[in-house]
Amino acid sequence: MKRAPLMISAALASSLAVMATATTAEAATRPAIAKSILNHRGISLATTHDSGVRDKANAKQNITDTAAGRKARRSSYGTAPGGSVTLNTNMLNAMLKLNTVKRFTFRVTEVAGGSHSRGSKHYAGRAFDVGTVNGARVSTGGAGYTKAKKFMKACRSYGAVLVLGPGDAGHSTHVHCQW
Ligand SMILES: [Zn+2]
Fold first, then answer.
1. For residue 109, how far is the Cα from the chain centroid?
2. Can you tell me the distance from the alpha carbon of 150 to that of 14, in angstroms, rounded to the nearest whole number?
3. How far is the CA of 163 from the centre of ligand 1 (A)?
4. Residue 26 alpha carbon to ligand 1 centre in Å
5. Domain residues of the chain, as ranges?
6. Which candidate, 82, 97, 42, 45, places its Cα nearest to that of 66?
7. pLDDT tens for the chain, residues 1 to 179
8. Can you tell me the distance from the alpha carbon of 96 to that of 139, in angstroms, rounded to the nearest whole number?
9. Signal peptide: which range, if any (predicted)?
10. Residue 24 Cα to ligand 1 middle (Å)
11. Residues with Cβ within 5 Å of ion ligand 1?
12. What's the CA-to-centroid distance between 7 and ligand 1, angstroms?
């Protein structure tokens, strides 16, 4: 009977520890996550578009602007609407954890920039594209296929609502993860 108060205290301490962890995770701000993405070498960020166009809306600049508390710029060619957008925090968090937790190394080819299909969620700051996973270029066969499929599954595990890749129209050489 004398041990009962101790057990309650231990249970309470355990709950408080869980709450503290959750609070810490929630406290990670958008700029802080973006800064962390920039600091992880396993996440490579393209500085040009696959189209060859050079502007301030490339993946590296999008994350750099976000880390500085600014909006990410969109491109102004093709169907891209120009202007800028706030990047989705859940998407940024997943991008980071795909490296820090899931241990993927990958190259992000587009975030808010580039020209995509009309109304693309890239323009809403809710999607990113990946062209290389664990050293293999995304493709419809071989390592580029199996690694892409694993990456796609991991994106879904972080809440991506739409994931496209090899086997899907227009995605034979890149993976699209959207929140
Ligand atoms: Zn895409």
1. 11
2. 34
3. 9
4. 27
5. 29-178
6. 45
7. 555 555 545 555 554 444 444 444 455 799 999 999 999 999 999 999 988 999 999 999 999 999 999 999 999 999 999 999 999 999 999 999 999 999 999 999 999 999 999 999 999 999 999 999 999 999 999 999 999 999 999 999 999 999 999 999 999 999 999 99
8. 23
9. 1-27
10. 31
11. 129, 176
12. 52
**Which 3 state secondary structure label does DSSP give 74?**
coil
Per-residue exposure over 8-27, b if at least 16 CB sit within 10 Å of its own CB, e if not: eeeeeeeeeeeeeeeeeeee
Contacts (Cβ under 8 Å, ≥6 apart) of 95 = 37, 43, 108, 128
Beta strands in 15-78, from DSSP E residues, in sequence order: 43-45, 72-73
Q: How far is the CA of 38 from the centre of ligand 1 (A)?
A: 20
In this structure, are residues 54 and 113 in contact, taking their beta carbons and an 8 Å threshold? no
Task: Write down the pLDDT at residue 21.
Answer: 47
